[in-house]
Amino acid sequence: MIKRFLSYYRPHRRLFTLDMLASVGVALLVLAYPVLTRRMLNQYIPNRNLTMVALAGLLLLGLYGVKLGLNYFIQYQGHMMGVAMQAQMRSELFAHLQKLPFSFFDSLETGRIMSRLTDDLMEISELAHHGPEMVITCFLSLILSFAYLASLHIWLTLILFLCVPILLVVANRLQGRMRKAFRESRVAVSSINAAVQSSVAGIRITKAFTNTVKEQEKFEAGNKEFREARRDAYRAMAGFHSTTTFITDVFNVAVLIAGGVFLYRGSITFADYSAFIVSINLFLAPVNNMIRFMEQFQNGISGFERFTEIMDLEPEKDDPDALELQQPRGEICFDAVTSTYGEEGDILQKVSMTIPQGSTFALVGPSGGGKTTICHLIPRFYEVKEGAILLDGQDIRSFTRESLRRSIGIVQQDMYLFNASIRDNIRYGREEATEEEIHEAARRANIHDYIQSLEKGYDTIVGERGVRLSGGQKQRLCIARVFLKNPPILILDEATSALDNTTEILIQQALDELCKGRTTIVVAHRLSTIKKADQIAVIADGQIVEQGTHDELLSRNGKYAELYRLQFRGSGEQSSSCIPAEALLE
User: Fold this and answer.
1) pLDDT tens across 79-99, in order?
2) What percent of the chain has pLDDT over 90?
3) Fewer CB within 10 Å, N or C, the chain?
4) Residue 537: what are its φ and ψ, rounded to 5°?
5) Rounded CA gap, 167 and 110, in Å?
6) Whether pTM exceeds 0.85
7) In angstroms, what CA-CA distances link 552 with 13, 557, 558?
8) Cβ distance 129 to 16 under 8 Å?
9) What ranges in 202-340 are assigned the alpha helix state H?
10) How do strand 535-540 and strand 489-493 relate by DSSP bridges?
């Protein structure tokens, strides 16, 4: 762990070296005051040499000026080194997050991830700067203080330093408890962040359902957990500080008693004894710094442990001999595919089906039956447990994930829009697209005229998750994004199920245009939208219970036919008021 942490200093070796040299300089300059004090007490003042007293004062002032410059460098450049290391870790962590499988994000809230990216790395940054500085200066200061104090009186110095092992043993025992407490405190902080992120993201739902009291209760539960965790952390820290401070106070008592005895016996002069008392801070300062360092070390190392927890998670990996997928035709074949999710049972059970190139294949059935899982398996958001998915006759695992996903466009019921301009959200489908290509994609998605009517046009900021747009407008922007991507394979996962009739007609027109010439998989509850599909499969309990065209399935008078009759009973085929598929198939 420590070796891994130290590796992050490598890119900053020059600045680190200068920072350490400045710290050594400060440690050396600390000796100036006691050395000059001893000289004054032993020579200048007894000899009434006021000139040397004044010169010594000016020399000390000059040295303090140098110390000021060194401290400024340490505080500014040293912290910037820590920030650079923090930024490097944050970049690595963010890049690693992009490579982790979907299952990781299914099990960890956004707020907890944000806590790893911000709070934990901030503590690591502080340790990165102050840690080596404190270790070096404490070690050097202890050596220098021992040498100087020994020059005043060796036995008094040995008595003082014999107390150090006691301090180290006690501190070592207490720091383990403190480390555990601080780690639990970090977990509590991430829980609060997760609760706040979830509550703020769903603030409109909270207000709509007048559940502010409920949200406050949920937050207070996390806040209570935080208070208890911090209480344990501060209790451990209080025990550590109070005990170690008591031991350092004992040092003063030992010096006072032993020094008085030596002074009484005449083995030390009054001037040297006075200088020893004045200079004892040379020893106590690095000891106190060591105590502070242990606290900071616990904070920083617990943050680094949480950082490495994520960094050590296995990312998505392509097979060593994976190929780049080049211009696929779009034929998709499921060969006895079984899929599972976490500790749950199989979601899909030996599903076999073929989706011909350029055809439209519809999936209907109850929620949880496996429709969306099928859609997630094709771009390898999740992996199959058994069987294989073939694209143009080749196992999709033989292609790199990036090239496979470049060939697939996805439109969902709740598509994500970034808090950026309309232009940037559409361009997300193909970053190198020209302005004219962006406009053409918007026209084909039936959204260009609306965008032009806005005061800032394509420069309009849509807000977080597209909050400033209606559901239909967001959906058409997402369709425009896929138009721009122009993939040979298209997945429509309930893309129109949450829209009103008028908006659905506009979007359905855009989707019909989008589907032309592409292999299209459609998940839908409104059967009116998939009547013209080349094939329809009814999915229930992870299996295909029926498959055929709309007319074939009606003629069989099975599950699909019964669902169809219930959905349009008494309202005609154009009605959008229907009984959900779940009502029949679950």
Assistant:
1) 888 888 888 888 888 888 888
2) 19
3) N
4) -120, 130
5) 42
6) no
7) 73, 9, 10
8) no
9) 203-208, 212-265, 270-279, 281-311
10) unpaired
- Cα–Cα distances in angstroms (integers) from residue 549 to residues 78, 257, 532, 534, in the given order: 70, 100, 8, 6
Distances (CA, A) of 285 to 70, 132, 136: 18, 16, 13
Helix axis angle, 471-485 relative to 501-515, nearest 10°?
0
Per the CB < 8 A criterion, the answer to whether 315 and 99 are in contact is: yes
Burial class of 580 by CB neighbour count within 10 A (0 to 12, 13 to 18, 19+):
middle
β-pairing verdict for 386-391 and 394-395:
antiparallel
Per-residue tokens: 455 = 């005061």
- The DSSP secondary-structure symbol of 523 reads E
Comparing CA positions, the residue from 281, 264, 263, 284 lying closest to residue 273 is: 263
Give residue for tokens 């506009």.
Answer: 506
CA–CA separation, 113 and 311 (whole Å):
12
3 state DSSP class of 492? strand
To which residue do tokens 């299952």 refer?
Answer: 103
Q: Six-digit token pair at 327?
A: 């211009």
Q: What would the two tokens of residue 24 be?
A: 């050594």
Cβ partners under 8 Å of residue 27, min gap 6: 136, 137, 140, 141, 144
| Burial class of residue 574 (count of CB atoms within 10 Å of its CB; 0-12, 13-18, 19+) | exposed
User: Residue 31 in contact with residue 93, Cβ under 8 Å?
Assistant: no
Nearest CA to 224 among 182, 198, 195?
195
In the three-class reduction of DSSP (H, G, I as helix; E, B as strand; rest coil), residue 124 is classed as helix
- Reduced DSSP (H G I as helix, E B as strand, rest coil) percent helix, strand, coil of the chain, to 5: 65, 10, 25
- Cα–Cα distance between 327 and 502 in angstroms, integer? 36
> Which bin fits 383, alpha (ψ -120 to 50), beta or left (φ > 0)?
beta
Is the Cα torsion angle 530, 532, 533, 537 positive or negative in sign? Answer: positive
Which long-range contacts link 168-174 to residues 24+ away (Cβ below 8 Å)?
170/243, 170/244, 170/247, 171/240, 171/244, 171/290, 171/291, 171/294, 174/236, 174/239, 174/240, 174/243, 174/244
CB 160, CB 254: distance < 8 Å: yes
Amino acid at 490: L
Q: Which among 518, 432, 447 has a CA at the least distance from the CA of 480?
A: 447
Rounded to whole angstroms, the Cα distance separating 190 from 119 reads 9
pLDDT, tens only, 102-150: 888 877 777 777 777 777 888 888 888 788 888 888 888 888 888 888 8
Instruction: Give the burial string for 115-141 (b: 16+ CB within 10 Å, else e).
Output: bbbebbbbbbbbbbbbbbbbbbbbebb
Q: In what order do the strands lie in the sheet with 519-523?
A: 408-412, 489-493, 519-523, 360-364, 535-540, 543-548
- CB burial string 481-490: b at 16+ within 10 A, e below: bbbbbebbbb
**Which amino acid, residue 543?**
Q
Q: What angle do CA 425, 429, 431 make, to 5 degrees?
A: 85
Closest CA to 145 of 48, 279, 37, 265: 279
